[in-house]
Design a protein that fits this description.
Layout (H helix, E strand, L loop, with lengths): L3 E6 L6 E6 L8 E6 L4 E4 L5 H12 L6 E5 L5 H4 L2 H6 L3 E5 H21 L16 E3 L2 E5 L5 E6 L10 E5 L4 E10 L8 E3 L2 E3 L2 H11 L6 E7 L2 E2 H25 L10 H18 L7 H13 L2
Parallel strand pairs: 4-5, 5-6, 6-7, 11-14
Antiparallel strand pairs: 1-2, 2-3, 3-4, 8-9, 9-10, 10-11, 12-13, 14-15
């Protein structure tokens, strides 16, 4: 599995922000981490423990300071499946109560898919679930060992999943947003897993992006794609979601009688591939088109 590590030097009064990125085996997921000079805070944990191990090894190339906490931005497996590695290092995991409550159901849904349907894992090899150790509701401020602070905001609206937290590194204005924003990359369109079913809410996601603009941040650091100024990142993501919603609606309408194939698991796949091709043609500059093929079923099914 290929990995990459980038360090961004921040203002003298602040620490260092780093980012580890997996390859497609981990869905090109970015894990940010912040070294305040005394301790390290990680944001999201990667899809499998092996990638979390690789992320920790990458951090160790630049710092030997302890990893004391990990913030889970939302309840998707690439954000929490590697918690066991960080817990063993003594890190405290933190998430909103809503995210913590959603995680077991998401884990069960994804475990069934990867083990029983995709057969990419067995019951023994799929990552063991571990609950987060600390929760909050609304807003929470973390005081780091250096005296700096990180503010966690639980958004009122859903984002890529049913619940969404944004972390602001207060000294720098960096907003760590998980998959709420994929600037320059395609989005995961499955929706949040609620009562064992995917429930995409693009209107709620767009509203969540309006919330993002009010959090006093400067730069968005997304779970995939590129970094970007907050206003530009939020507005680009909103325009993208509106366009994708229209594209999927138009595609379904154009199927006519063949629309019934979308409810047939043996026939739906070719339509997801077709939608992926349309989306990548509509947005040729956006990377990671395979995310459409994996996740668009949720948005499609919500329209049937």
């Amino acid at each position: 599995m290929a990995t990459a590590l980038t360090l961004a030097t921040l203002p003298a009064a602040a620490g260092q922000l780093g980012v580890f990125q997996s390859d497609a085996n981990g869905f090109d997921t970015r894990t940010y981490w912040y070294d305040d000079g005394r301790e390290i805070t990680v944001f999201d944990s990667q899809f499998v423990p092996q990638l979390t191990d690789a992320m920790v090894a990458a951090i160790r190339k630049s710092s030997d300071r302890p990893i004391t906490r990990v913030v889970v931005t939302h309840p998707n497996p690439d954000k929490f499946n590697g918690l066991s590695v960080l817990h063993k290092l003594g890190a405290t995991s933190i998430a909103s109560k809503a995210t913590a409550d959603a995680m077991p159901g998401v884990d069960a849904y994804k475990r069934y898919f990867w083990v029983k349907i995709a057969k990419a894992f067995t019951d023994e090899t799929y990552p063991a679930f571990e609950a987060v150790k600390q929760t909050f509701s609304g807003k929470s401020t973390i005081t780091l060992a250096s005296g700096e602070t990180i503010t966690l905001f639980e958004l009122k609206n859903p984002g890529v999943s049913a619940t969404q937290t944004v972390a602001r590194i207060d000294a720098t204005g960096d907003l760590i947003v998980g998959d709420l924003v994929h600037h320059g990359a395609h989005a995961w369109l499955e929706g949040g897993i609620v009562e064992s079913k995917p429930r995409p809410d693009l209107k709620g996601w767009i509203a969540a992006l309006d919330e993002l603009k009010t959090l006093g941040g400067k730069v968005v650091r997304g779970g995939r794609g590129e970094d970007a100024p907050v206003e530009a990142a939020a507005e680009s993501q909103q325009a993208y979601l509106r366009a994708i919603d229209a594209l999927v609606t138009e595609y379904i309408a154009g199927l006519g009688a063949a629309k019934a194939e979308l409810a047939d698991p043996t026939k739906a796949g070719k339509h997801y591939t077709a939608i992926q091709e349309l989306a990548t043609a509509r947005f040729p500059d956006r990377k990671l088109g395979y995310l459409i093929g994996y996740g668009v079923y949720g948005l499609v099914n919500s329209k049937l």
